[in-house]
Design a protein that fits this description.
heterodimer; A: mainly alpha; 3 domains; two-stranded antiparallel sheet; globular; B: mainly alpha; rod-shaped
Chain lengths: 530, 48
């Protein structure tokens, strides 16, 4: 903490944040149009400007205040100094870097990826999942290995783990039991077998290969559930260090990219249908972004494969809370064993169970009760709906006429679907979740692409994410972005070299096993429809 | 043997402290819990 003595760092960082937010605010209000707003327009981030201004102003004011305090009273003696005043310069710097990755680097890579698609034949940004999460870690790694972490920043970097834990607790608010019930039974059974199977297999491999427990834990979540995001969510539970994260993420991306290229080729070679391939991709490919990409590579003309793949992908993501709990018990049990030689699950749960995981469970329970869902909103499947009559939700007259003609043509043989469509024509918008499902089902009775699009639009028009959920999601993203940059800053080349290549061996063995087994299950056992 | 154990425990504790500003993991968890739930309650009160 000596480094913060009489350091102007916090003041400078705070002022940069304040000035950035104020300039952006002026330009957004069109008082003085300029570079930042032009850039936001080019990067398609104009929707985020109000968040940027809000976060920038608040963070700027707080960091500047502590910066002035640090200059006036440089001695850091109390607990408050150690926990709040000391880390402030580092916290401000990481917030600045989060701005850079979320609002500049990610959109830039998105644009580059799309532009390169014409020449490369694929979107490299989408394929490698170059989002702010990954870029944040990379920025952290580059920073620590080039500039290094100066004394005034060190305490701030050490708040990264706290931020990650806050992210995991907030993640609990994004789940609901309603979503679990909505998923098809086949996807739940298949995914449960593969998720649990992979997690247990990796934990066993880790034991045989004697890899450190934090690394094994993070690998098992990443390989078993949904890649990088699962590894990130599980990292605080198993006390993963920066180096464990670096190895796991590197390996998960590598195995994921190999899968992305090989899955569609194999699927085509053996003649899989959309259902079989979607199920295989959603189970066997590690990262969510790569699941969607592989499904689109396999079947670029329609989105049938993508739809199936996403059902499986979402189902496995929903297993994350249970895997986090399982890993927490597994990790705490191991620690207990090392200490006293005998294990009591009850003692583990009471004494060793991480409090923040309880927070996650509590938040998940809250979310299930609908505490985050305002009146008029309903959670159905993975979407929120608001059926309150509104002109904006109504279909155009010509679309309604097209639906009327479709009803009269007699192509709809299902009476429930038919009456749902008749109600849609009468009300001009969908009015219930049951009707939503039936209207979407109407697509099965026609080959007309325009009509299919109208049904989808009718559903989309009544979808609305409540502000509460949007805000919680935004907080969660900030916590993870902050935490991962800080984690990246704990990864030096020296530590990577020291760690060895066991993560890669486990990753390849588990990744290939999962891919091969899920291939045979999907190819041989899945017939017809779900 | 006992010395080895003590050194390992010491090293573990140092490693843990090196990654966190908190004196113990439980305090870090409790802080995370309090901040996250305070935010959630604020969000519900102000936006629901």
């Amino acid at each position: 903490m000596n480094g913060v003595k009489r350091s102007p760092a916090a003041l400078i960082i705070g002022l940069i944040l304040l000035i950035y937010a104020l300039i952006l605010k002026r330009q957004d209000a069109a008082v003085t149009p300029g570079l930042l707003i032009d850039l936001a327009t080019y990067l398609k981030t104009t929707k985020t400007v109000s968040t940027q201004v809000g976060v920038g102003l608040w963070a700027g004011i707080i960091v500047t205040f502590f910066g002035l305090w640090n200059l006036a009273v440089p001695a850091m003696k109390s607990k408050f100094d150690k926990l709040v005043r000391g880390p402030m310069a580092g916290i401000g710097t990481i917030i600045l870097l989060s701005f850079l990755t979320r609002y500049y680097l990610e959109p830039i890579f998105k644009i580059w990826g799309k532009n390169a698609e014409k020449t490369l034949g694929f979107d490299f940004a989408a394929m490698f999942g170059l989002n702010y999460i990954l870029l944040g870690i990379v920025i952290g790694i580059i920073w620590v290995n080039t500039i290094g972490v100066p004394g005034w920043m060190q305490a701030g970097v050490k708040t990264a783990r706290l931020s990650m834990k806050m992210g995991v607790i907030t993640l609990g608010a994004m789940y609901s039991l309603t979503e679990l019930r909505y998923m098809g039974s086949l996807s739940i059974i298949m995914v449960a077998v593969f998720v649990m199977g992979t997690v247990i297999f990796v934990l066993w491999l880790g034991q045989i290969m004697k890899t450190p427990k934090p690394l094994t834990g993070v690998l098992s979540a990443g390989l078993g559930v949904c890649g990088v995001s699962a590894a990130v969510a599980a990292s605080p539970v198993v006390k993963a260090r920066g180096i464990d994260m670096a190895y796991s993420i590197g390996m998960l991306l590598l195995v994921g990219v190999v899968g992305l290229f090989t899955f569609p080729t194999i699927g085509r070679l053996v003649g899989m249908n959309e259902l079989q391939f979607g199920a295989w991709a959603g189970t066997g490919i590690l990262n969510s972004a790569q699941v969607a990409a592989a499904a689109l590579i396999f079947d670029p003309k329609t989105i049938e494969t993508l739809k199936v793949a996403e059902i499986f992908n979402i189902t496995r993501i929903l297993f994350l809370p249970f895997i986090v709990i399982l890993l927490a018990v597994w990790f705490a049990r191991g620690e207990e064993e090392a200490e006293v030689g005998k294990v009591s699950i009850r003692k583990v749960l009471i004494d060793k169970f991480p409090l923040f995981v309880l927070g996650f469970i509590l938040m998940f329970a809250f979310s299930t009760t609908g505490v985050f869902t305002p009146r008029n909103y309903e959670l159905h499947g993975k979407h929120f709906y608001n059926f309150k009559p509104d002109e904006k939700k109504e279909l155009r007259t010509r679309d309604l006429k097209k639906i009327q003609a479709f009803i009269e043509s007699g192509q709809v043989t299902n009476p429930e679907v038919k009456s749902a469509l008749e109600k849609l024509v009468a009300d001009r918008q969908i009015t219930s979740t049951a009707q939503t499902d039936l209207v979407l089902k109407a697509s099965d009775f026609t080959e007309d692409k325009d009509l299919k699009k109208i049904f989808k639009d009718a559903d989309k028009k009544v979808q609305a994410t409540p502000k509460t959920v949007k805000t919680m999601r935004e907080y969660m993203m900030w916590f993870f972005a902050f935490g991962l940059i800080g984690l990246g800053m704990q990864i030096t080349w020296q530590t990577i070299r020291q760690a060895g290549g066991k993560a890669a061996v486990i990753g390849v063995i588990a990744g290939v096993t999962k891919a091969v087994l899920s291939f045979f299950v999907c190819w041989l056992l899945i017939k017809g429809t779900i | 043997m006992a010395e080895e154990k003590a050194t390992a425990a010491e090293q573990k504790e140092m490693e843990e402290r090196a990654l966190s500003v908190f004196a113990s993991e439980r305090r870090e968890d409790l802080t995370a819990l309090i901040i996250a739930f305070t935010l959630a309650i604020l969000v519900i009160i102000t936006l629901k």
